[in-house]
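Q:
My hope is that you can spare some time for a protein that puzzles me. I hope you can help me see how the letters and the tokens relate. Thank you; the sequence and its tokens follow:
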Amino acid sequence: MRRLLFLNGIKAFEAAARTGSFAGAGQELNVSAAAISRMVHLLEERLGVALFERKANRLVTTQAGRAYQSGLTPIFDALASLTAQVTASSARVLTVGVGPTFAMKWMIPHLADFRKQEPDIEVRITTGGMQVPFADDWSCGIQLGDGEWPGLVAEPLFAADLLPVCTARLANGLKRPADLKGPSLIRVAHSPDDWPSWLKAAGVPRLTARGPEFQFYGQALQAAVDGLGVAMGIRPYIDDDLAAGRLVAPFARSVPKGMRWYLVYRGFRAEQRDFAAFRRWIIRAAAEPATRQKAARNAG
């Protein structure tokens, strides 16, 4: 008989040791940090071994804890891989976690191309984003950040460049950045630094965005399409709108947001055929706009 002690506690410990905190483990496992702490404490009591040294502001694994975690993480990865293989044998489904605007402005418009190449693989989109923990049932996520997601592989896809956009009618009255007016600058609630960053780079740091505020980029960009004002666009959200003429960029200056878009996934997924096909496709698709832009500059 196998002697498996308190699997919930073992899972809580492995996540805490890997992420470096009870809070990080709680976010990953969708429970509170206090619940993780209790489960780890119970595990330590049952094992009769201290797994962590609890410092004032951080966790430090003991020698026993390091040895335990180094063995547990590959086991959990192998279990996840085995589960994915078993479920994949009956249904070829990939679950992709993305933010709502990324889904509407890039993923959905480009899915037809993937379906042409891989008609037998179903892609299911679930709402994620920067504030949503990477879920256990996701095949991968597409997230904006600095590339650091503990326990996950992160491969860069897009540069998140900022570029003001509006209708052609509004752009006719904008010859230089100083022509912008604060009340007409549409804002995104969760990205308050976008306009200040761009305005500073454009040489008008005293101008303050005071226009309508929306929760998501997608809402702000739709407001710009409807002529409500000038929105701060972020790539790749604006690429299709610019190409179709729904929006124009009154100024050529773009400013890096300081983050990038990444394809984020657990390492064992790289060995799965269907995910490997999706990974190849999205990396190639992400590179295409930059390749076209570079070719256009060289031609000019």
Remarks:
- Confidence is low (pLDDT under 50) at residues 290-300.
- Residues 63-90 form the longest helix (28 residues).
- The CA atoms of residues 185 and 211 lie 5 Å apart.
